Amino acid sequence: MKIKDVIQAIESFAPLQYQESYDNAGLLFGNPGWELTNALLTLDATEAVIDEALARNCNLVIAHHPIVFGGLKKITGSNYVERVAIKAIKHDVAVYAAHTNLDNVRNGVCAMMAGRLDLQQCRVLVPKKDLLKKLYTFVPHTDAEKVRSALFAAGAGNIGNYGECSFNAEGSGTFKAGAGTNPYVGKQGQRHIEPETKLEVIFPAYLEGAVIQALLASHPYEEVAYDIIRLDNAYQQAGSGLIGSLPAPMEETAFLQLVKQQFNTGCVRYTPLRGKPVQKVALCGGAGSFLLKKAIAAGADAYISADFKYHEFFDAENQLIIADIGHFESEQFTVDLFYNILTEKFRNFAPLKSTIQTNPVNYL
């Protein structure tokens, strides 16, 4: 197996197109064509993690946080980022990061958090826009089902929890086959009128290549007529944060104790209690203060995230409880997510989980 095979598995789950514009997810060091010895899974690609990879014969480190985030103008070893780069490159250790793309995918980092609390009926808190496209094509009636099935198999036609969605309208298409053509119907030099089905399907933009390939391979015409437009619709399967409901309402202090226990944190910073039960819970891995107003608007009783500043706690305005559990603590189960993705894709592959504690924050 090559490193690119592992990358493909991760990106089929969390496409790079889902990452935020400021991010730097993807392969940071190394060659995707290298033969894979093994992969080490971690939250942060620190120097100690690179040493661990070498000691455990892993030439690929898969991290959540990109070790190179804002770019490098020089590599002299003057800080930990440069030292990681030097060590990884010197010893042919590839470093890959899946960051906000893994945060934004519906079953990603936030879903791991939600699973710790057994949240039900979860949905993306702020779905992303500009991720969807629509295909229009025109097919002879007799071939419509063949083309539909091919497009569905390529990943088109999914809307929320519904699959194989399409719209079909009957009409008539006209064309005149020119010299050198071999028309599926009609004759050269003569205008032909063909009863056709207008077929419409929606698909994530990153699948455009696969969808077009499926269309061309399944369509009977030499020249396939189709249109693709970008949609402004929010994509419910990708975006920031998650919101769901506890199996039953909980008293506030008991809820906070559950959060502390389930996220193995030494400290939960929280806003004043409201004297109301908690059932509807919003959450976001990492620094999530930017979603506070969205959590309030969604009717959440509590919002679990990290890295709130002092004055941002006032913004709760007694409309919900903010529970700041720490950055590392909110994302620690990302390693398990990587493991699940890879072992489900490759049944005979056993990636290794790092034993290095990379959390730079300690509690007394």
From TrEMBL:
Question: What are the GO MF terms of this UniProt record?
Answer: metal ion binding
Q: Does the keyword Hydrolase apply?
A: no
For this record, the Gene Ontology CC terms, alphabetical, are: cytoplasm
Note the InterPro entries from the entry.
DUF34/NIF3, DUF34/NIF3_bac, DUF34/NIF3_sf, N-reg_PII/ATP_PRibTrfase_C
User: Which keywords annotate this record?
Assistant: Metal-binding
Q: Which Pfam families match?
A: DUF34_NIF3 (PF01784)
Partners and quaternary state?
Answer: Homohexamer.
Protein name (Swiss-Prot/TrEMBL): GTP cyclohydrolase 1 type 2 homolog
State the species of origin: Chitinophaga rupis
